Structures are given as C-alpha cells and as structure tokens.
C-alpha cells in the first residue's frame, strides 16, 4: 500500500513520518489487505495539530474513507485520526460480510469443484486423456449469485485474482478479474437462440 505523508505550513520530521508509515500500514491492512493508498496530511490550526487521513480500500467500489482529528500533540492527533479510520473500516467490512450472508440466504448458489493443475506449457486436448493436465488438488466450492459490485468486493476481500459468479440481475455466468494495469474487467456470458453462449467483456 502506498502511504503519502505531507504537511501544510509545518515540517513532518523523520520520526513522525516513520510512526505514520508503520502504524497506518498495519492498522489499515487488518481490514483491507489490498488497500491501494492512504494519504496522511498534517496542518496547524492555531495551537492544534490537525490530521486528515484518506484511504482507498482497493475494493474497486471507488469508496474513499476520511477521518480527521485535532489535538495539541501531533502524535495524539494522528493516533486519534487513525483510530477513527479503523472504526470506519471495521464497520464497513462488517456490513459487507453481513450483506453477503443475507445475499447467500436469499439467492441461489450452485455447487462446483475447483482444481489446481500443473502448468508445464503443454497444449491439452479433451479427447486425449493422456495429455490431460495433472490435477494437484481439488476442492468443493460454490458459485454464488451476486451483483457485480458485490462480486468485486468479494474478490478483493478474499484476495483472489478472479471470481466467477451468477449475475443476480441477468442470471447468467459472469467473471470479474484484476487486470495488470490495476483496473478490473467484467465478462458476462450472453445467451443467444440457436447458438452457443457468447462472452461480452466489459472493461
């Protein structure tokens, strides 16, 4: 996670900067391991030190969380602002988990099996079982019915590179995945009469 520390009309010393970097990183990642960035800004207001913190949690929802605190001591100001930020992130993550539990209780999910296979660069053909990839492990899982936004949040919270789900709105199979440029792509299967389903990519 990228952490930016800045000050307005005041100098941020090395000790304070190190305290911010170490404390903010561990505190925020307790709730969102894939958080993209945190901006910590210090300023003075008469005799008080003001700390503003802005966090991008990395869930792809475009949410940015903000907290502020004012104290006579700059360290106390930062610690209070960070504590307020933690409370926001904790409430938000709890809300996401509760929402998923409710969704799972109301929406259908399909049982599936996921496999871990070898990747030695061979071209595999279904007809030739001798060339089939070696299965290292297999595990039962569920393909859940979710909205696209919920799927993105689930993927990020579970620290997955991709997630297959059933689109709650259309009922079709969808996939969201992380691109190399940091954005997220969304692929939806399109059902057409008298033809095989086609895939539509939404970048």
What does this structure look like?
This protein has 203 residues and is of the alpha+beta class. It folds into 2 domains: 2-102, Double Stranded RNA Binding Domain; 108-202, Sigma 54 modulation/S30EA ribosomal protein, C-terminal domain (SHC Adaptor Protein). Helices cover 29% and strands 38% of the residues. The chain has 3 helices and 10 strands, in the order βαβββαββαββββ. The protein has a 6-stranded mixed sheet. Strands 1-2-3-4 form a 4-stranded mixed sheet, covered by helices on one side. α1 runs parallel beside α2. The two termini are 24 Å apart.
Task: Based on the model shown, name its key terms.
10 strands; six-stranded mixed sheet; single chain; four-stranded mixed sheet; SHC Adaptor Protein; 203 residues; Double Stranded RNA Binding Domain; elongated
Tally the helices: what do you get?
A: 3
Q: Give the helix/strand class.
A: alpha+beta
- Beta-strand fraction estimate: 35-45%
Distance between the termini: 24 Å
Name given to the CATH homologous superfamily of the largest domain: Ribosome hibernation promotion factor-like
Number of strands: 10
Give the overall pLDDT as a whole number. 80
Topology record:
Layout: E1 2-8, H1 14-29, E2 37-45, E3 48-56, E4 64-71, H2 74-106, E5 109-117, E6 135-146, H3 148-157, E7 162-167, E8 173-178, E9 184-190, E10 198-202
Parallel strand pairs: 1-2, 6-7
Antiparallel strand pairs: 2-3, 3-4, 5-6, 7-8, 8-9, 9-10
Helix pairs in contact: 1-2
């Amino acid at each position: 996670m990228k952490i930016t520390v800045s000050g307005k009309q005041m100098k941020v010393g090395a000790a304070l900067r190190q305290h911010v970097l170490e404390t903010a990183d561990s505190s925020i990642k307790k709730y969102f391991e894939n958080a993209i960035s945190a901006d910590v800004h210090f300023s003075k207001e008469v005799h008080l030190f003001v700390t503003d913190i802005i966090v991008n949690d990395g869930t792809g929802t475009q949410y940015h969380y903000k907290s502020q605190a004012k104290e006579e001591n700059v360290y106390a100001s930062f610690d209070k602002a960070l504590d307020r930020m933690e409370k926001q992130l904790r409430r938000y993550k709890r809300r996401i988990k509760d929402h998923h539990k409710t969704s799972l209780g109301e929406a259908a999910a399909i049982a599936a099996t996921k496999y871990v296979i070898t990747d030695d660069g061979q071209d595999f053909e279904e007809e030739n079982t001798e060339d089939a990839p070696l299965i290292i492990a297999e595990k039962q899982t569920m393909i859940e019915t979710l909205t696209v936004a919920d799927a993105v949040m689930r993927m990020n919270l579970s620290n997955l590179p991709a997630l297959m789900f059933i689109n709650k709105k259309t009922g079709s199979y969808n996939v969201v995945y992380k691109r190399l440029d940091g954005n997220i792509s969304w692929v939806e299967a399109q059902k057409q009469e008298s033809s095989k389903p086609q895939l539509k990519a939404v970048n």
